[in-house]
Each structure stands twice: as C-alpha cells, then as structure tokens.
Amino acid sequence: MTYQSDHFKKTISHAKEYGFVFSSSEIYDGLNAIYDYGQNGVMLKNNIREYWWKSMVQLNENIVGLDSAIFMHPTIWKASGHLDAFSDPLIDNKDSNKRYRADVLVEDYVAKIELKIEKEITKASKRFGEQFNQEQFIETNPRIIDYKNKVSLILSRLNKSLEAEDLSDVKSLIEELKIACPESGSRNWTDVKQFNLMFGTKLGASSESSIDLYLRPETAQGIFVNFLNVQKSGRMKLPFGIAQTGKAFRNEIVARQFIFRMREFEQMEMQFFVSPGEQKKWYNKWKETRLSWHLSLGMGQDNYRFHDHEKLAHYADAATDIEFKFPFGFKELEGIHSRTDFDLSKHEEFSGKKLKFFDPEKNKNYTPYVVETSIGLDRMFLAIFSWALKEELIEEGNTRTVLKLPAILAPYKVAVLPLLKKDGLPELARKILEDLKWKYNISYDEKDAVGRRYRRQDALGTPFCITVDHQSLEDKTVTIRDRDTMNQERISFKEISGFLEDKLNIKNWLQKI
Which residue among 170, 182, 213, 263 has the highest number of C-beta atoms inside a 10 angstrom radius? Predict the structure, then answer.
C-alpha cells in the first residue's frame, strides 16, 4: 500500500471517529457519495465558509452577497447550455459492470506518469543533496523529458477528442493506453456515451399541472439572472462582483474519493462584472488574489499549482484551475474563468429582458464581461483536513495523531481542562470558559488524565489547551499549551485574552493576501 492511499484511508477514518464527516443515512446502509457533516465537521465547514466570505465580501467594497434559490425557472438551464451540453463521457466495463468517466480514466493514467516524475526527482534529490538543481534536472533528464512529452500528447489528444465530441477516439485512446478497469483488471470496454448530469424534479400540486424543474448544478446562474436586480438596487458601478455560497447537485457518473466528488455539494462562487476589454486584466488579478488566499492558510506553496486549460469551454476566453496536492495527487480545487459576455447575453436572448449596464461615463449601454472564481467548499474541507492530519513521533518512541488545522479554522479554538475534578478546579476552569465563550468556540474536558486529554484535543485540531491546576488557585495563572509545538507556558488570567487575540484575529490571517 502506498503512503498516499494509506494516508487517505486514515483521513476518512479520522473524519468519522472524531465527528467530522459521516456517511449519510448510515443506519440504512447509506447513499453512495452523500455525506453528513458531524458536530466538529460543521464547525470547520462554517469557519472555511466565513473565511472565504469575509475575504471576498467584507474586505471588498465593490463585492456584495446573494443567496439565490435552488429551484430556478427551467428555461435558465436551456439558456446556460446545461440542458444540451452539461454531460460527461461515460464508459462501462463489461466484466465488472462498473461505470466510469472516460476522461477521468485517462487523467488517472496521466497522474501515474506524473507520480513517476516525482519519484525520479525525489531519488535525484537524495543522491545529489544540497547541490541538486531541480529545475535543471527536470529540463535535462531524458526519462523525465520522455514522461512529460507522453503526458502532453495524451492530454492534447483527449482534449481535442472531447472538444470535437469524437467519443470513438476517446475509447481508442483508452484502448491504446491499455487502461484496465480498476475493479476487475479487464480491458473489455463499451463505447463511450454522453451522460447528462442534472437531477430532474417536478413543481406542482398534481401530475397534470406540474412543470419539470432541475436541482441547480451550479450556483452561478442565480447570480447572472439577478445581475440587474443587484446592480440597480445597490447602485453598483463596474467593476463589481456578486458572491454566493450554496448547494449544487450533480448526478455524477462516478462519485468517489470521499467528499472530493459528491452528488450534493456546496460551492463558493463570485462573478466579477467588468467592461469588455478589461477581462484579461481582472482574470490575472483574481488568479493572483485567489492563490494568495489559499497561501494565507499556511499549507505550503508546493501543494498548489495552476493548471491552465488547453480545452476552453465555449463561453470562455481564458480558464485555469488552482490544483491542490490531495492524498490522491494534484486535483482541481478552484476554477478561475473569463466567461466573456456569454451568460448575460444568453439570458437576455431567452428571457427577452434587457440585461445591459448603462455606463454614464461612456453614455452607452453594453453587456458586461464576467470573471468567475469558483471553489468547492467540500473540496476545500478535504484539502485542509487531509493536509492537517499528521502522525508524529514524540518522547520515548511514542506517536501522536494531530490535526494541525490552521488555527483560524479550527472547530474549537481552546480547550479548558481542570487538572482534577475536585478542589475547586472545575469551578475555576468553568469561570474561564464563561469568559472566553463569547468570542471563541471553547471545549471543556475533565475526563481522564490530562495527557490523554491533550491527545484528544490534538486529534480534534484544537490549537490551544488551558490547564487549571492548584497553582491557579494561588496566583491566578494557568498553563497554556500549543498544539503544534506542544510547548507550555505560564500566563496570568489577564493575559489569556491578549494571547488568543494575537493568534486568532482573522485580520492577522487575511492581511497576508
């Protein structure tokens, strides 16, 4: 078993054991690729959403929020192209009867080649030590050059075939690469077909009067159809943005990799409306800004990379993904797209209502262009959670499991622990808790030896533990322990608030952007 697959299994297990993520309807054997967030998971998820919302809406005067409905007029999905073109290439294995996304099978094959490149670099780094020049090695090593050329040829062919809707060539590519079914090892494939991803439902009191609706597959369209409502009521001037978080639904062919790809998920999106001709400038600006937001959480620049799209959607003139190094390799975490004026123009065409912006400086009406930033909240949760989960060697050869979540996102910021359940220590500890709970989520734990309680809080990702002992009764001081370093220091009751403010003030985190 590789480290990556082993770590991913531990991530899933830890998420359940410590109340972060459960299989939905588990007592009824669950639903495939549907998950519930537990008592700690919902706090982490809310904190991620708030961190995004404050950086996007609160800190930008020209970006406002929206909460549009999940049910929308069905013609919206005709205008947006989802009814006709929102599909994935599907392929079945005849021996295992398992269904796969054809493009993902090819991308997984490519990921294995990229893993070989990483292994070559790691081996060379160990061999040459401090003298190792990684950039030069990548550019000159024949094996790596061969691997990179192979990756480029495969992806280029895949993208051209998908763009031309040449599904027979996608199958040919799978066969030529000798890609086998992960389940059966068989290469006995069906033809590739397109599969629409939207969930259908009905609206109405009776079957005769009901109309066909869809669960929204993205949140963006709610922003576009409300463009003029927001612009006029808020007296917004270009450039300005509309941000939204909310649920979206896709009937994924293969929903897998835990909460990475689900059928019910949450998006955090912002559509930034600009004057035609300025979209490239703002596209580059938002690429830089969004990467800075990710880096502000301290998860390491090496875990992120841009992947510019070779195959552009029909409505885009530029597109890139911010990819994160998940336990199963680099995968898309956030998309930044220059969508031109496609969406507003299409809704104007299908609705018959004008969706143009009147520019008083130019004294004319025109359709704004749009730059989109779109991130999956569940994917962000998985990125943070899987990165944060560590196993560390500590004293006397023992190990500890610790969840090194960015402190600003941790479900509980502080655990208050009385050393003993007597001598007035619980009462004093609860007094500290009562004082701090108005500002932070606080955990209180008095069960087991204090060392075991520290381990429990480490596994929950709590950044700081405050221990109340007999000395606290005498001199009004406590021990405060840092989760990451395990260092402990003695501070007075009066210093607690200032200590936490320095570590947990969101301003100190978002100023890094």
Answer: 170
Largest CA distance in the chain: 80
337 and 237 in a common domain: yes
Q: What one-letter code names the amino acid at 31?
A: L
Structure-block tokens of residue 88: 């994935």
Contacts of 447 (CB under 8 A, 6+ apart): 453
> Do 101 and 35 lie in a common domain?
no
Question: Which residue range is the domain that position 64 belongs to?
Answer: 1-69+216-377
Cβ proximity of 58 and 169 under 8 Å: no
List b or e across 225-238, with b for residues whose CB sees 16 or more CB atoms inside 10 angstroms: bebeebbeeeebeb
Q: Is residue 464, in this structure, part of any structural domain at all?
A: yes
Pairwise CA distance, residues 511 & 499, whole Å? 19
Any domain includes 109: yes
> Last residue of some domain: 354, 377, 400?
377
**CATH number for the domain including 480?**
3.40.50.800
Are residue 450 and residue 503 in the same domain, yes or no? yes
Q: What is the DSSP letter of 215?
A: B
Q: What's the token pair of residue 177?
A: 């690469």
Same-domain pairing of 183 and 288: no
pLDDT in tens, the chain (513 residues): 455 679 999 999 999 999 999 999 999 998 888 999 999 999 999 999 999 999 999 999 999 999 999 999 999 999 998 887 777 898 999 999 888 889 989 988 998 998 899 888 988 888 888 888 888 889 899 999 999 999 999 999 998 898 888 999 999 999 999 999 988 899 999 999 988 788 888 888 777 778 889 999 999 999 999 999 999 999 999 999 999 999 999 987 776 789 999 999 999 999 999 999 999 999 999 999 999 999 999 999 999 999 998 777 778 899 999 999 999 889 999 999 999 999 999 999 999 999 999 988 888 999 999 999 999 999 999 999 999 999 998 877 789 999 999 999 999 999 999 998 898 899 999 999 999 999 999 999 999 899 999 999 999 999 999 999 999 999 999 999 999 999 999 999 999 999 999 999 999 999 887
With respect to residue 206, please indicate whether it lies within any of the assigned structural domains.
no
Q: Residue 165 is part of a domain; what is its CATH number?
A: 3.30.40
- How far is Cα 346 from Cα 225, in angstroms, rounded to an integer? 10
Task: Quote the CA–CA distance of 335 and 467 in Å, as a whole number.
Answer: 44
Q: Are 301 and 328 in contact, with CB atoms under 8 Å apart?
A: no
User: Which phi-psi region, left, alpha or beta, contains residue 396 (left: φ > 0; alpha: ψ -120 to 50)?
Assistant: left
Separation of alpha carbons 417 and 481, rounded Å: 11
